[in-house]
Amino acid sequence: MKGNQLMRKPKLLRALLILLFVAAPIQWTRAQIVLSTPKTTLGAVIKNIKSQSNYQFFYDDKLAEMPVNAIDVKNGSLQSVLDAALQGKGITYKIEDNIVYLSASGEPQTPQQTGQEHTVTGTVVDATGEALIGVNVQVKGNPTAGTITDFEGNYSLSVPGNGEIVFSYIGYRSETLKPDGKDVLNVTMQEDTQQIGEVVVTALGIKREKKMLGYAVQELKSDELNKTGDPSVTSALQGKVAGLQMNTSATGLGGSTKITIRGNSSLTDNNQPLWIVDGVPFSDNTTSDASRYGGVDRGSASMDINPDDIESISVLKGPNAAALYGSRAGNGVILITTKKGSKKDGFGIRYSGNFTWTAIGETLDMQRRYGQGHIDTKDAKTAVYDKTDSGSWGPVLDGSMKEAWNGETYAYSNYGDKLKDYFDTGFSHTHNVSISNGTEKSHFRTSFGYSDNDGVFPTESLSRVNADLNAGTELNKWVSMDGKISLSRTKADNRPLYGDYGAISQLMRIPNNVRLDDLKQYSDETHAHVNWTGPTASIRNPYYVLHQRQNSDERWRAFGYYSMKINFTDWLHLSAKYAFDYYRTRVQSTNAGDGINGEANTSMITNDSMDRSEENFFESNAEVILMGDRQLTDNFRLGFNVGGNFMYQRSETLGVGVGNMVDKGNWMLNAANLLRTGSEDGYKRAMNSVFGSVQMAWKEYLSLDLTARNDWSSTLPSGNNSFFYPSANLSFVVSDFLRSIDKPLPSWVTFAKARLSAAQVGKDTSPYQLYNTYSFKFDNGVLTPTKDNVKMNDQLKPEIATSYEAGLDMKFLNNRLGFDFTYYYSKTKNQIMKVPAAAPWSGGQWVNAGMVTNQGVELMLYSTLVETKDFAFDLNVNMAHNVSKVKELAPEENVNYMFFNGDGNFPVKVGTRAGHKLGEIYATSLYKRNENGDIIVNENGLPMTVTNESEYVNKPIGNIQPKLTMSVSPTFTYKGITLSALFDMKFGGDIFSYSEMLATGNGLAKRTLNRGEENNYMMVFPGVTESGEVNTKQVSASEYYGALQAEDFIYDASFIKLKELSIGYSFPSSMLKKTPVNSLNVSFVARNLCYLMKHTPGTSPEGGYDTTMFSQAIDYASLPFTRTFGISINLGF
């Protein structure tokens, strides 16, 4: 395709790029080659060239034995060497960057073919319809008869009448087809992601052959990530990486997500991996004030990333893979590489669009038989309807006419599923346009993205705008530049409130006989709160929550880098980079008041009020790296890098709260009569680092990597702020070794590799944990100094994580089957944790104590179970098992157990005991039992309980850790049609349903259907009296269910979920020839279709009330399970 006028003027383009400071290295290889040899084989020439340069060659193995001409070249270019060697030999070549493609040109031909031949032409494309350039097209059985596709993917080849054509291309499965007399034969090639020569992005953005790595790294390509058009990068990762788990808050659009890789290693919730985008550290901070009692989850900062701009994601699992990134990467690295323009692709325009609809699926299991009221145990001995009752212990819904809470009279019947009827059908549309081009000297890609989402919560919306530009230019043969700037704006309106005062908590309490439509009039003419329970503060009208308590947040973000690369030789270069990440977040929440009691400053803030805050975050990184990579001998290759980094981080936060608004609905600071609160906060931190690594390879089957890094952190005291950590990784390709000594493995074993690694990394702490300070708080017009209630520690040391890993990678049947297996063990000591302290330190004190271990296995299986001319069936499986265990806490401080969710006042706590697994669930009130385990019942017929902490902490009722996480991804391809799915699975682990416990107490949970209706709503609690006799005392159904304890609401959190489904069709290029469109793919997409297996009562086994550490153990007022369906369109011009 022809380029535009700008790209025909490379001097102008380069000048513009320099002025914009947007440029960086294009790694051309320009070695001068010396080669003098008599007639020899092509394989020998290639080996000689590779020893003098960084060129890589791809060709049919049969060509290696073909004779070539004598050569005598001194300080010549690669082209001059190949031209001299291949002249008249019927072999052609194509050079792309540092890759050389060789193929037979089709001459000379064998005599028996001549005379029977006819010319076959066609186009070769990939699964998306994109033309493939440089595909080897060869007559089967004749290595000298062949050609390669051109820049439009076209080819022309003379073929004997009964001949077959073999199509082969790096990264794709070979295709063998018989023309059967056809003159036109078009081919769609499928990617082979399991090739032995697979190249992945590793630490510092270095691309390396996966087979030479001594540690586990898992890479996802763009098409794997974006199959169903998920607007969130983190959500799209779920289920696709072995050992990666997500803690997701079930709160609607853009809810925050926390990722852990290989378990939790820190006791202070510092378990998230480091995000790196194109070499730039990228903050994934969450902005949330959510708790059990309200607040809003404003999502994770990774939501700012446009998934359509991503080329690939490499997941570096733990210190072994990520040691070069230092202390911030102790929990692993999410390494994102974005798309760039290249000369290979030429000028191109691409568009992608997604249109999806989201609806509520399952909801909490509720009973639909009984209505509002209570059980009269004194006179009537039956269920009694009472329009003022907040419970649902009334009589059977019989359709009789009754006066309702609002004075109207209508049928006493069930009026639908409140938890489903309240919500809307959400609609989202996303659009992305990219323009790219490249010449021999320069490249650029720019993209624009827009995403608009209306959630299932009425009035909830989320939008995102992205603009991205990256470009590079080669100033001369010594210097090149590269750069990127990415801008985004993410805006949300009316994110749902959490917990007790959120809409879902209110919906869970509305009796069946109350009509939801009647509640839409949520206030009267005096703006007073109108609700089915009357003016109470504990139960709110869900439409009041929706309209009177509104919020918005907006985040503007800019990140990018500028780098320069100097090539001293073809094997040694120096790069310098400056990178930055900046965002500004503005948050506003308003409360129009209840009109309940008119008093200001109650816990519910019942008069008009507004809170506004703004955060500014900035991080910069300056880095210099010297890199070398050279083939020293025929058998030995040495690579190295040494560098330094300076990181600076700054955060500033301002907040103000006002009340008693003069003009209702005018939410301006100067329209308030009361300044309620004011605050200002911030921090600065810095880190200096030096690092280096050495990569040694012997005959491309034995590789040893050694790394070292030293960090100096500003958050630790001067005596302890320097920490050094090394790593070592060994890879041994057994199959290549045995082949080199003429003792190959059986033919059905294609590849075998063993690997070992060991690493150590340190982690520092948050700023200002060393010395106690005063803070100032403005509260109700009074500025007051406040002293810390936590005792700081100026002797803190870094946490130290040590990790060991061993693995085995195998491939069989020419890569049709394979697996990657990894065993790992890690321990993190010197945990920086808070322990109790003597007065006046009521908040405790910071100390180094505790040790956490993680031990587990990961298994990745991949297979092509069926492969024919038109049909293929691939099946990939990820499995992981991890156990996080606390070896010790702080025995010297007499601390042998600790809790993680301290602010919720839930009937359960989540924590750990020394010597036990992390994530134990403890009920703060347990049934009192005798030695036989029977529940002891008091004289009133109700169970007795144990509430002493020292007792219940030794009797956990569950643990959040799963025994196995797993995903299965089948893909079926038939001609241009692709059907793919992703099944996400978890086996083991427990979850406490506080949602069901509250609904049970109100008489709405499904389990309350059994309420002794035939016995005047009287029931007997199973158990024994204190004297050991079987209990026979009757109590009302409401008393019975109100006496149930947390242990009755613990569920197995196992599940099997159909997470993704897509059915797509790629239009063949022959159908698009007369249009400006080069490629077109249309897909039906679906996300979170259903749970095929789960044990929770209608609720999601994944939902947590927020994203704090182990909050997944508690389900409370979470958004019901939602399903998403839509279409996806991809166009190329």
Rg, rounded, reads 33 Å
Which descriptor suits the 3D outline? globular
Strand content: over 45%
Report the mean per-residue pLDDT as an integer: 84
CATH class of one domain: Mainly Beta
CATH superfamily of one domain: Immunoglobulins
Helix content: under 10%
Q: Can you tell me the residue ranges where pLDDT is under 50 for at least 5 consecutive residues?
A: 1-30, 106-115, 596-605
**CATH topology (level 3) name of one domain:** Immunoglobulin-like
Q: Could you say which structural class the secondary elements and strand pairing correspond to?
A: mainly beta
Largest sheet: 22 strands, antiparallel, barrel
Measure the end-to-end span: 9 Å
Please identify, by name, the CATH architecture of one domain: Sandwich
Number of strands: 69
Number of helices: 14
Describe the structure.
- With 1133 residues, this protein is mainly beta.
- It has a domain at 24-188: Immunoglobulins (Immunoglobulin-like), CATH 2.60.40.
- It has 14 helices and 69 strands.
- The strands form 18 sheets. The chain has a 22-stranded antiparallel barrel, surrounded by 4 helices. Strands 18-25-26-21-22 form a 5-stranded mixed sheet.
- Strand 7 and strand 8 (99-104) form a beta hairpin.
Notable traits:
1133 residues, mainly beta, Immunoglobulin-like, 22-stranded antiparallel barrel, 5-stranded mixed β-sheet, 14 helices, TonB-dep_OMP_SusC/RagA
Topology:
Layout: H1 10-20, E1 23-24, E2 33-37, E3 40-41, H2 42-52, E4 56-58, E5 67-68, E6 71-76, H3 78-86, E7 91-96, E8 99-104, E9 118-125, E10 136-139, E11 146-148, E12 154-159, E13 165-168, E14 175-177, E15 187-188, E16 199-201, E17 207-209, E18 217-221, H4 222-225, H5 233-237, E19 244-248, E20 257-261, E21 274-277, E22 280-281, E23 286-288, E24 297-300, E25 310-316, H6 319-322, E26 333-338, E27 348-360, E28 374-376, E29 382-384, E30 401-403, E31 409-411, H7 418-421, E32 426-438, E33 442-454, E34 461-474, E35 479-493, H8 503-507, H9 542-548, E36 549-567, E37 572-591, E38 609-631, E39 636-661, E40 672-698, E41 702-713, E42 722-733, H10 734-740, E43 749-763, E44 774-779, E45 782-787, E46 799-812, E47 817-829, E48 832-835, E49 845-848, E50 851-867, E51 871-888, E52 897-899, E53 908-913, E54 920-923, E55 926-927, E56 936-937, E57 945-946, H11 949-952, E58 958-959, E59 964-974, E60 977-987, E61 990-993, H12 994-1002, E62 1018-1020, E63 1024-1025, E64 1034-1036, H13 1037-1042, E65 1050-1052, E66 1055-1066, H14 1069-1072, ...
Parallel strand pairs: 4-8, 9-15, 21-26, 56-63, 61-68
Antiparallel strand pairs: 1-35, 2-6, 3-5, 7-8, 9-12, 10-11, 10-13, 13-14, 16-17, 18-25, 19-20, 21-22, 23-24, 25-26, 27-32, 27-69, 28-29, 30-31, 32-33, 33-34, 34-35, 35-36, 36-37, 37-38, 38-39, 39-40, 40-41, 40-44, 41-42, 42-43, 43-46, 44-45, 46-47, 47-50, 48-49, 50-51, 51-59, 52-53, 53-54, 54-58, ...
